[in-house]
Every structure is written in structure tokens, then in C-alpha cells.
Fold each of these.
Amino acid sequence: MSNKKNLTVCLTPDIFCNYNISDDSIIVVVDLLRATTVISTAFHYGIKEIMPVSDLLQAKEYLNKDNYIVAAERDALPMEGFEYGNSPFQYMNDDISGKTLVLTTTNGTKAINCAQDYHVITSCFINLNVVSDFLIHSSRDIVILCSGWKGLFNLEDSVFAGCLSEKLILSNKYQTNCDSVLASRILYNQAQGNLFDFLSDSAHRRRLKSLNIEKDTEFCLDPSIKSDIIPTLVNGKLVRD
Amino acid sequence: MSNKKNLTVCLTPDIFCNYNISDDSIIVVVDLLRATTVISTAFHYGIKEIMPVSDLLQAKEYLNKDNYIVAAERDALPMEGFEYGNSPFQYMNDDISGKTLVLTTTNGTKAINCAQDYHVITSCFINLNVVSDFLIHSSRDIVILCSGWKGLFNLEDSVFAGCLSEKLILSNKYQTNCDSVLASRILYNQAQGNLFDFLSDSAHRRRLKSLNIEKDTEFCLDPSIKSDIIPTLVNGKLVRD
């Protein structure tokens, strides 16, 4: 019998319930463009905790409360009435330090909430190294959960899943019986070295291009900051691990 | 404005309902290992029509009826009490000529039934050329619907979707805004020329290997027959187009 733990990639939250997931699995949520990159950026700049909420009404309850900042995005656009959106650059300021961020986005916060019965962490290129080291030493089954786009597969989260899968499989601590791991590794290996160009035809890159937020995309794919923080869901809030 | 029609790949029937599909779209169902290969083989050997049914009880109603043959498969195994299973070789005989095949399989028949409100055809390597020619001349939006495995992504259907997508995109009649098209084309281009080896680590190949049905897999990936028949769903039955 192999002592290796199981690695699974789930390409969209809408099929998460189709997997047999062991109770002590770690679920790594990825929404590379841009929610999980925003989450790592906000922690890096001192946010205390992050509440992922699925709907706008729930987010609105926290508007104008002391020590809360509230961010909302739908269809890649910031929502009227909210000070913060889904651009990582908005979080690079001292105002956020020590506060609670209430965050609702099109896909990322839904993915986090759909996995909430498990040990949930979030990842992106900012904390890739610390997350992969943590997972390699965890001796637990892992599901990398891609947030996708409105219930559909997307390329950027899958490529990131392939990148993280590659590290885990090469550590020799993980095995897989999951075709999505094989596919995402192939996609990552094709993309490697030129992720920005590789994703240029992807649906979300085109969406962001048309909104002139190429700078966000560049940051998410090749961030200028690195972080050792592993955002971890505890009682419905993401906290530093 | 481009006159090109839209090409979409849906990686598993469980997210089919998340797509905005135009009413006159053609849905191409793929269950390469083995249901859609069985369907093309049966038509090639003279079956009159095929009724895809989702559950075993419904299939049992047709047992011992004149001019019907009934086939059932679950988890890659033929089911007790049914004469036929999901191996294409079983259908290479004159007994099936002119009869109706009632077919229930783990994934393929469910995919066909979930798309039944649209114009549904089935494809595999046996009828790839005639199907791609038909689609290129159809001037209709297309969704290639991968049957997957129990609601999950699988590699073989995605690679086939990539192969068919490649032909459609290169015809210059189709455009896509679908990341699954991009991904499946990359997978196909990696697999091209050595599909059997490429799929050797895939979950279903391993399942079939352990059941010693490698001969079926070889046939499905590189069939010794070609067919000009496009199985088309009409009133709940697949007929020759």
C-alpha cells in the first residue's frame, strides 16, 4: 500500500458535490483573477480577517461599520455603493490595517463558501510557495478547487491548479486518480514561462482587457509581492493561519 | 460583425445547464470509452434505431421483446440479466440488423438525455469525419458535450472534443469564447499521434485495464471501421440522420 495522500482538482464549484472527499481533506480555493489574489494582497497589507459572503445584501449590512471595509464585485466590475472592488491595487494601503474585510465576488467567495465544511485555505501566486510547503508536510488529502466563471471551467484557475499539482506530485507525497490533475498539469506545462500570453485568448483575460484592467492581470499572474500567509477559513472568516 | 458561429465545449453534463445555449444549436454528445463508439458500431452493423434510457428498470421493460436488444452497463461492467453490454465488439454481428437497441450506460445515455431539448447527434472516432463535415456546413452554433464520468471531467472525452474543435476552428466557420475549447485543443495537440499512451494514466483507462478490456480501448481510440452515419436523436430515439 502506498502511503501517498490523494490529490484531486475540481474544475468548477458546481461539480464539487460529485467528489468523494475525505472529511479531513484540505480544500485549496483558487480564483486567480482576482479574488484569491486580492485576499493574499489584503493580508500582506495588514488586514485582520476576511469574511467571504455570497450575496450583496449581506455585504451591505457592514457598510459604514467601524473597522470594516466592504468590497463587492460582479462580472469583473466594482459595484456601486461599495468603496472597494476586486483590484489587488486597492488593498495596497495602510487604511486596511487591522480591519475586517467583507468580500463578495462573482466566483471566488462562492467557491470558498461551498467548501466551508472542510479545512479551507486560499492560494494564488503570492503565497504559492508557502502553500505548497504546507500541503507537502500536511499528510492530508487535498482538493484544489477552481472557482471558474459562473459555474463554468476557466483556464487561469486550471493552469494555477496544474502549477500547484506539479509541485505536490513531484514531492512524491501525493498520488492522483483524477483526470483533472493530469489535464491541469498539461495546461500548466504549456503555459509555463509565458502565462500572460498563454491566457491572452482566455475568456476572462478578454473580459478584463476590455475593461482596461490589464495591470491587475499582470499583477495576479506575476505578483511583485510574496507572502507567507496562508488564509484559512475559521468559523466563516479567513484568518492568517 | 463576424459571421462565424459559436463553438462551445461542455466538459461534463452536470454543468450543461450553466451555459447559454441558443435554441437551434447542435449538441454533439461524446462518450468515447465506450457508449458513443458502441452507438456508431451498432449503426454500422445495421441496427435500426437506439433508445438511450437513463435507468435500468426502464431498460428491463424491453427484455425478451421481439426485435429489441437490450444493453446495460454500470461502472464499466455489463449488468447481469442483459445480453449486451458496452463493448463495441458485441455489436459486430448480423443478429442486430434491423432491430432496436435499448441502451443504458453510466454516463453516455445520461448526457444524451440531458441535451434532449436540442438537436442532438453523437460522435466518436468512427464517424469523426462525417460529423465534422456536417457541422462545418450546418451554419449553426455547436456545443460538444463530454459525457465525463459520474459528473466529473474525464480526459478521453475532452481530448476528442479538442480534436473535433480543432477541425471546426480551422474551417474558419467557427469562433469561440469558451475556455474549454482552448483547453481541449491543447490536450488534443499533446495527445495527437499517440492517444493510447497519452491516456494510459487516465482514470477510465486504468479502470478498463483492470477489467482486461484493453482491446475495447484500442478499438475506440483507433477504430478499424469508419462510418458515414450520424446518429441523431429524434423523438427520444437515435436514428440514422
Amino acid sequence: MDPYLCSLLAGRHLGPAPEPGERMPGQGIARVVEAPSGGPVRPGNRVVLDCGWTRWLTQPADGLQPLKLPPDIPPQTALGILGMPGLTAWAGLHRMATVKSGEVVAVSSASGTVGAAVIALARAAGCTTVGISSAGKLDYVQNELGAHFVLDRGQPLPEQLKNLKVPRIDVYFDNAGGAVLEAMLSHLALNARVVLCGMMAQYEQIERPPGPNLGPVIGARASLHGLVVYDHFDAMPTFLEQAVPLYQAGRLHCHETVFAGLAQAPEALCNLLGGTSHGRVLVRLEPSF
Amino acid sequence: MDPYLCSLLAGRHLGPAPEPGERMPGQGIARVVEAPSGGPVRPGNRVVLDCGWTRWLTQPADGLQPLKLPPDIPPQTALGILGMPGLTAWAGLHRMATVKSGEVVAVSSASGTVGAAVIALARAAGCTTVGISSAGKLDYVQNELGAHFVLDRGQPLPEQLKNLKVPRIDVYFDNAGGAVLEAMLSHLALNARVVLCGMMAQYEQIERPPGPNLGPVIGARASLHGLVVYDHFDAMPTFLEQAVPLYQAGRLHCHETVFAGLAQAPEALCNLLGGTSHGRVLVRLEPSF
């Protein structure tokens, strides 16, 4: 389950919205039941693909690849911290923001999969990390994900930022939009970089709300960069080369909330968007395969 | 006269606002009356400096430099098209947006000094140019400044953009903020660059108004860059190397509105901000020196 599914339904994502009756899109891990011999996959292989919300799928074998993760790593991480959300964090930090050791990196929706990966990868790059989340998840963000500092997005951010025991923000990874983005733009260091990755605050709104005043961006000589992870799949091997050892060392992880059975999928999406779950939200098909 | 003076008075520029009774800041050309012998300037030299609104000024000679422009170029261009506003355009196009030949470059407040320089420098770089201005200045922007296309900022921009006979915008140089910026962000090409240079729309407002929704920036994988010209004075020689021959060839120019006498300075600033003048607004001291 990914937050973008909601903006997709609203017709505001990159592709067209699915019509009523069409299959909901979404990434999944599938097991190959039948495959032509001599092709890239064999029966029994696990594959990551855009299968959508379904139990069975017929799909051309070309372009499929067996999932290649070390056997000690649970396969569902390929949908999360070692998959597209992890790559999103890596591309934002290293390709768009080009983080440097010693910088201050802040991230909103810090308890989500992308947020967890941003914190872990920024720490690995030698940065000080600031996680922004709702009050009930701050303990998780600080003590499990390892953010050096946390901000409660339910309380006024300008005051919390003023009292923060670190200099201004060098890199802000925005998954939120709205008031959080506005507050963070007023607390940027000179030459700060902002990665615009998601607009959680507006996914469920019909009309696009106004955005932040951009005056402070000029004052800070900052830059804002729109990130779409689809542009960065070529970096997956580079990302995994760094991320798999971090995962195995326990320094890159993410809570998983698993819903059982495809019938729970709508509930799972609502949970994710309502903020009642945290970390990666997954639906496991029942009976499991 | 520069638009930033108004945000400076409102306390929103980089430095503190002048107190009532203090001299208004501003760049000018002065003639040296007295100077220590052996220093960098001699009596009679013209110098560009931050003199503010004054007729006489005592100033350390260190750091002053005689104005060096070819004798066929009027000295006041050093305050305009061949000075800070020209350098602003150059730095935005070449350092922040890294324009490439064949790209579509749009600029707001196109009839102003920065706008005129953006159009000329973008044309010189092989780009197609789009000037945005008020209805009464479109003829000037197209026929005198040489913009390939013009947009009337007083009419709905989304429709005008849709009917524009060029592809989407690769580089947008924003001097306006507000509704113009919002409309332009929805018409960006993939990987577009936006230079945030001024917020004319909000200079006279007490509270910072909301800004544009940034969703389209993500969709376009665009980047926004805050530009402060003070960071780019090192590029002045490089800029002039390109700009002086363009000026001499008649391909870089800008209308001048000249007010006579220091007492006209407040009127000149109001004129600039109210949009009733166009091009460079200057105040000539009377009697001239």
C-alpha cells in the first residue's frame, strides 16, 4: 500500500485514474505458477511486479526477473525498505540533494517506509537527522528508527524548530506538503536542498490547496526538487549495494503492518492514509502461497 | 530604483529595514570629488556603489573602483542592463537554470530591467522566449525587447499557455510570484528549472500570502532555485564579456524612465511598483554632475 494510490484515484498522479470496476494498481510480490521454459523466470520463482490488487495474474514473462535478495532477508522488504520506497529515499538524498557528511537532514512522515529509509541512509552518510511525525509515533521514530531529534507535527513547528539543538536544516525531505512544508521552508540553512516527494496533506483533498510562500526559499538560496522514483530505477543496484549490508547490520529497518487477505486491502489503504498504522503497510494473500 | 526596496521597507529583505529618518539604501553612480592620492580612485572618476538616496557621501576609498565601460556606452547602464539587474538575469539563466540552446524560456515582469536582460541573454543562448507582462507593455516586450511570444498577465494564463505555439516551458524566470508563478508551474516541461528571483506580487503586502501548490513540480520533476544576485558578483566580468558586445550590437537594451531630482525618488519608487513605468527607473540628481 502506497500513499500515491489516493492521488491516483483522484486523477492527480502521473497516469490516469482507474475506472470503477478496473483493478486497483499496486506493487506486489508474486510467485510464478507457470512459465514458458527457457524464459527469464521458472515456476516457484518470486517476482516483484505491478500486479495490482489481485490473486492471480497472467503476464508476459519478458521483463520479469526472479527476486534476488540474500536468503536471510524476508522477501517483503523488496516492497519496502529494500524496494521502491528505499530507492526513493536514496535517490532524493544522493541524486537530488547530494547530502554531505555533517549536514542536518529533516524528513516528514518520518514513521513511513520512505521516512525510515531517509533516516537510516542519512545517518549512514554521516548526517544529523530530524524526524517529523505525529505525537504517538515520535518514540518509534527516535528510538527504533534512530532519528537524532524529533518534531511533533501536531504542535506548532516554528517554535520547535527554534528550540532545536542543531543548526538550520540543510536537506529537507518532504513527504507531507501543507503546513509542515511551509514551516520547514522558513528554517532552511543557506543553500539548502528540499526534496519534494509526496503531498500526504493533500492526497485526500478534491481541490489542490494553496502551497507555501516561497519568499524564504529565495532568502536561503535554496533549491526544491521534484522527485519521481520511476526516473531512478537504474540506481537500484547501487542502492541495494549500500542498503543490504545496512539492513543486515540492523541499521535499516521499518515496522510492518500486515493485513491478512485481499478483502482487507481497502481497509489497509485507509489505515495508511489515516495515519493509524505505521511503517510499511502490506496485504498478505490468504491462504499464503 | 529596484523592486526589492519595498520588501526591504517591510522588513522582509535580507538586511534590516531602515528606520524612519535613516537614509534609504540603493545603488547609484557617483562622481568622486575628493580622494586620497595613491588610492584606487581619483577625483573625476565615476564609481558604482551603494550610496543610497543622497547627493553627497563620504566613504572609504578602499573597495571603490572607477567605472570601466567602453566610452560609447552610457554610464547609467552600469545600474541596469550592464549592472546588477543584467547580472541577475545571467546568473539565473547560466548558473541556476543552465539553459541550453533550443529550450523555451519564459520570464515574468518581462518589461523590467531583469526581464529585458533575460529575454536578450536567452535569445543569445539560442532559446525561444516568452515574455509575461501587463497588456499595455506587451507590444514593447515583443517588438522592442524581442520576445518570440508574449502572455498578458491580466488575462487567465492557463488558456494562453495552452494556445501557445511552443512546447511546455523548460526554464521559467520568476520575478512575480503569486498567480503568475502558480500558472507557470502547471505548464512546465519535464525536468524544468524555475528561477525564483522576486515576488513582485507580494512586495506591498504586510503578511506573506500563501504560495503555489507544488504538486505539479513533482509531476514535472522540476527544480526551483532561489536566486540572490549578491552571491554572483564574481561572475560580473564573465557576464560583461558577453553582455557588452550584445549591447553594442543593439541586441541587449532596456527602456529607461528617468526622474529628475532626488525629491522625485519616492515618486519614482511608487511608479516602479505600481507598474506605470517600464524598463529601468532611474533618478538623476539635479543639477547633474
